[in-house]
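Quick illustration, no need to memorize.
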Amino acid sequence: FGLGVVSVFVSLLISGPFGALGLYSAEQETIWDAIAVSFFGAAIPEEIAKFLMFWILVRRNKFFDEHMDGIVYAAAVSLGFAAYENVMYLFSSEDWITTGVMRALFAVPGHFFDGILMGYYYSLVRFDPLTPKINWFWVLGAPILAHGIYDSILFTIEVCPGIIALVLSIVFIV
């Protein structure tokens, strides 16, 4: 959990250069801007940072000795990240009650789910010597895709006209 908190700061170190390189902008005016910030400003740096902390935790951990441990450790790191991120959002929000409830219902389970994906694929790689090499890709690819799609839907709602935003809201909830 503590390494997940640390991963927040690592993700900021990764996302900063992405912004400086022009891969995303904080100003979201188009759907493409929303998708770019979803992946380059959030999903990629956050999932890489969480993976680095997860890897530090499990690489020589004698207690990491079965498949389920990967899921548990990665989920714990992800929940540490979500906890600290949520505190930052609450302190910067004028409507902290709504922000807290919405993040508790959606963001925390989202990070938890991303951690499950990461831990699952890492466990396949570590414990199954016959696992396809593609699972190395999915260790980071699955959580990045899940996180990026989640954020893309939310950020796109903010820049889309009425009916499209309504449809995306329904898709998000489903």
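The CA atoms of residues 125 and 131 lie 6 Å apart.
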